[in-house]
Amino acid sequence: MKGDETPGRGRAWLLASAAVAALFAAFFLVRGCAFMPWNRSGREVEVRVTVTRDFGATVLKEQRVRVREGSTAMDALLEAAEVETAYGGGFVQGIDGLRSGYQSGLGDGEKVDWFFYVNGHMADVGADDYTLRDGDWLVFDYHSWDYSMFTPFLAGCFFQALRSGYGGRSAEGVAVLHTPGAAEEAGEVAAMLEERGISCDTRLLEEDWAPREDEYAVVVGIWKEMEDNGYFRGAFSNASRLGLYAYFDGAELKLAGPRGGVAEVLSGKAGLIEGTGPRLGDGRSALLVCGLDREGLDAAVEALQELAAEGGRPVTAIAAPAGSAAFAVPGEVR
Fold first, then answer.
1. H or E segment at 192?
2. Cis status of the peptide bond prior to 278, with omega within 30 of 0
3. Looking at domain 155-329, does it have CATH number 3.30.379.10?
4. Could you state, in order of their start, the residue ranges of all structural domains in the chain?
5. Angle of helix 183-195 relative to helix 294-309, nearest 10 degrees?
6. Measured in whole angstroms, how far is the alpha carbon of residue 6 from the centre of its chain?
7. Across the strands, what pairs with 17?
């Protein structure tokens, strides 16, 4: 041994270290565990985590996760997948090796990123700041934002939105509105909602109607009877700004591809299911179930029935050509 190092000193050091370790252990047994995120509460919540790409066209992962009450959407995602984060942990940089293609610091790269939705609503906070409620449906989708930065509402998740809302705030009522020639189809949609325990009020669509705060709406009709409504006319004239990848233009239904630009035009016997919302995380949302003509409207109602039967799809919109299979927009645009 060197200098004054002695066996006695070594034993004293070991005893001191053991005492400190015992104190830390006692602290965490009595108090420390309460600070751990997985021990915030003894109760648990169950949420559905869906990881997709290309606007929901491809499902990469689907899992139900149980986490402690008070956990965040990021906590649930970490239970289901390998996650890379940025900006202090609140921004999803990559999931299971699929990473953001855009380098924001340099302002270049491919404009593809992860986008986060809760019960069909695009979140207005990061995944690490959204507190989960039991039954929430979380969708993390990897897609291009060349055409539009934000898509505020996923049409394929509409039934979930009615049940669970956003941020603990659900709709106070559901209005089923219809154009003059679509009362029968509106009745079919209302029956679908009632079967799922969702009460609704069916009435005629007025030209000055727009979504009211805390009121979800399903608007059913033929486009030529609806185009005088200022809300939808304004939305379709600003489609890219509002994140709408399908829109009516006169007697045509135009469908944009994932990177924008009109990729397909349907000119007859075609319907559309699409969601709109004024801003992120807003309760005022409307589901449009519309056709260019009677055949197109019937095709849209049929597609909505299929959507309800399968429990929803994490897709932006659905085009429904009469006599052909419905497909997701923009992810499955041909």
1. helix 183-195
2. no
3. yes
4. 7-35, 44-144, 155-329
5. 0
6. 66
7. none
In order of 72, 124, 256, 298, the CA distances from 286 in angstroms are: 27, 18, 20, 19
Alpha-carbon distance of 11 to 187, in angstroms, equals: 84
User: Strand pairing of 112-118 and 121-122?
Assistant: antiparallel
Tell me, which fold does domain 44-144 have in CATH?
Ferric Hydroxamate Uptake Protein; Chain A, domain 1 (2.170.130)
Average pLDDT over residues 23-36: 38
Cβ contact 304:146 at 8 Å:
no
The DSSP code for 54 is T
Q: Is 159 exposed, middle or buried (0-12, 13-18, 19+ CB in 10 A)?
A: buried
Q: Which residues contact 125 (CB under 8 A, 6 or more apart)?
A: 281
**Of 122, 49, 127, nearest in space to 85 by CA:** 127
Q: What is the pLDDT of residue 327?
A: 97
C-beta of residue 127 within 8 angstroms of C-beta of residue 71: no
Strand partners, 56: none
Location of structure tokens 């016997």: 269
Convert the pLDDT of each residue in 87-137 to its tens digit.
877 789 999 999 998 766 555 678 999 999 999 999 989 999 999 999 999
* Band (159; pLDDT cuts 50, 70, 90): confident
The β-bridge relationship of strands 215-222 and 173-178 is parallel
Query: Model confidence over 176-199: pLDDT tens digits?
Result: 999 999 999 999 999 999 998 888
Q: Token digits for 35?
A: 């600070």
How many residues comprise the chain? 334
Mention every residue, 6+ apart, whose C-beta is less than 8 A from residue 78. Answer: none
At 162 the pLDDT is 81
